[in-house]
Amino acid sequence: MAEQYQVSGDSAAEISASIETGVLQGFWVAGAALPSVRVLAGSLHVSPATVAKAYQELRQRGVIETEGRRGTRVRSRPAVAVRRAGLYTPIPSGLRDLSSGEPDLRLLPSLAPALAAAAAIQNPPQGYASAVTMPELVDAARPRLLAEGVPVSGAEIVVTSGALDSIERAFNAHLRPGDTVAIEDPGWAALIDLLAALGLRAAPVAVDDHGPDPDSLATALRSGARAVVVTVRAQNPTGAAVSAERARRLRELLSGHPGVLVVEDDHAAELAEGAPHCIGPVTGSWAFVRSASKPFGPDLRIAVLAGDETTVARVAGRMRIGMGWVSTVLQRMLLWLWRDPEVTALVGRAAETYGKRRRALREALRAEGVEVGGDTGINVWVPVPDETHAVAALRDRGYAVAPGALFRVSSPPGIRITISTLDPVEAPELAQAVASVLHPAGSLPPMR
Description:
The structure is a single chain. The relative contact order is 0.12. Helix content is 39%, strand content 15%. The protein contains 15 helices and 15 strands. The chain is α/β, with parallel strands linked by helices. The strands form 4 sheets. An 8-stranded mixed sheet has the order 4-11-10-9-8-5-6-7, with helices on both faces. The termini are far apart.
């Protein structure tokens, strides 16, 4: 138990609130161990059942997690805004930061012309009654998606505030706390956090260069998964992309589970090399999410969600009684960006640049005897025996990378290296540093 903070409370609600306050104020940092149920019950003079219920409430809110023999701990990214303790260790000056997972800001188009154009069009001002998903944006989105093979000819389309917002709204349209969701492992850290915050259970699905493994997904479906999330390309953190053959196999598998919600995440959109290979619609409920944040910048928090009539109607209906709609200013900005040929060319060059940077590092690593995969996206996943040692050793060599624990449920350890700002000439030196960590002097690299 944290020495400077004592849990208090006589009821489960009071105890959970006290622990959450301790996390929020930074007395318990991410990963810190909480006392066992019996120990805390004894110190508070309450029944173990009361503490167990408090812990259950905290788990359902995404504040803590239970990891078998490791006991109960604060989640790596608890679903509360920590005031005094950062969730990430600051990157010391002088380190080459390859841990962020963010695009290269130098390759993003300026939003100023799009904003000026949207402001000029937004006259007279938008009223409440007419503020919805703009028909002209839908009319522009549909042929863009169809041109890449996304089957949206008969799909409904709504605009949301980004990829994660789309996924959360699709979950809320079909799932309830306690339901199981099959997710890629390793996979998107924010999605793992979202499941915890919504009280949903994660069923890990192994992923390789071609996407989710069908046998692993079949196991998750047999365990009762009611939803599946698939990253169609530029998978974070591995760089995997669903191949045509893998999409066929997954489609065949999911056709036997008509009640399962299938969510396809295309967060990288125009920045990913190669068209996406879609799985749906193959079940009764389907959503395809195309975000604008990666190619056009994080400030453009907008995504297009296409799906079956019921899913989209529920998403749009829930938005109507909450946030209402995505700003029509943002919608007009996205429409302008889509239509501008210079922006299209700029995004295309950015995709090519990321491809060159990723391939340079992958080839340099392979030359050093380090086998890595991933053909799309801005990240490279490197399997390692010990994440803590690898991250610390690379830091000693001047590089900051992300520990794989943020992205894993039960898959083997690894590290994520973000290549978005990595110039190809830097790749050989970085690869040598990684190899020196994995294969210290006197040891031999694995056979290629």
